[in-house]
Predict the structure of DDE-1 domain-containing protein.
Amino acid sequence: MPPFMPVKARKRLKSNEVDTPDLDLMENLWVILVWRIKDLKSAISKSWSEVDKGVVNHLVSSVAEPIFQVINKSGSCTEN
């Protein structure tokens, strides 16, 4: 049973738990979801590490002027 599941739900599922693992569909579904989440985390981590530092530096440097425009307008909208 997933550790993040609410206590009430865990107790209810525990009382209705199926003893045969092959028939425990929810447990099998949770296993599949956990695998997919791990794959997704790996893909995100890999993609993040592949972002060129030059792209990040450009994005950071390009935001300075719009920030100053917002500050000068006391938080109001600025013209593009």
Remarks:
- The helical segments are 7-15, 25-50, 53-62, 64-72.
